[in-house]
Amino acid sequence: MTHRTLQKVTEDIEAFKFNTLLAALMEFNNYLAKARETAVCGTAAWDEALDMLLLMLAPETPHVAEELWQRRRGRTQFDPAASIHVQPWPAWDPELAKAETVTLVVQINGKVRDKIEVPAGIGEAAARELALASPVIQRWLEGKTIRKVIFAGGKLLNFVVG
Fold this sequence. Notes:
Helix content is 48%, strand content 19%. A 4-stranded mixed sheet has the order 2-1-4-3, with helices on one face. Helix 1 (2-14) runs parallel beside helix 3 and helix 2 runs antiparallel to helix 3 (44-57). The protein folds into 2 domains: 2-96, Isoleucyl-tRNA Synthetase, Domain 1 (Orthogonal Bundle), CATH 1.10.730; 101-161, Ubiquitin-like (UB roll) (Roll). It is of the alpha+beta class.
């Protein structure tokens, strides 16, 4: 999650997409809040995630990020040599940033009827097969004819029925 968020934030900064950048950081913060209750808290991965969160916050919230960075390092007075703003931007690992699964939204006539966890990069045929196997979708399609199937980027599958 850390590397996926870093990749998204980096791309959003480069594209000046600050709304989605902040949404990604909020999602990451929520993820960390849940992870805090697990065994990962206090590990090297946890420390890396916190540092990366602060580094990703720095361009958007420079004063808050600086204050938290200094406190995290046990400093009570500002140290310009250790400022968050002189730290290099972190690099993400593409292997760690890959999503293993995604949520496939299944619609019927444009209305969301089910959400299914599927492997990332799923093809249309496999997505259609999984959606048609869903009991929820089977109920909605009962007695109806599928006229068209719209598959959008592995995240959305829409059955147009009549």
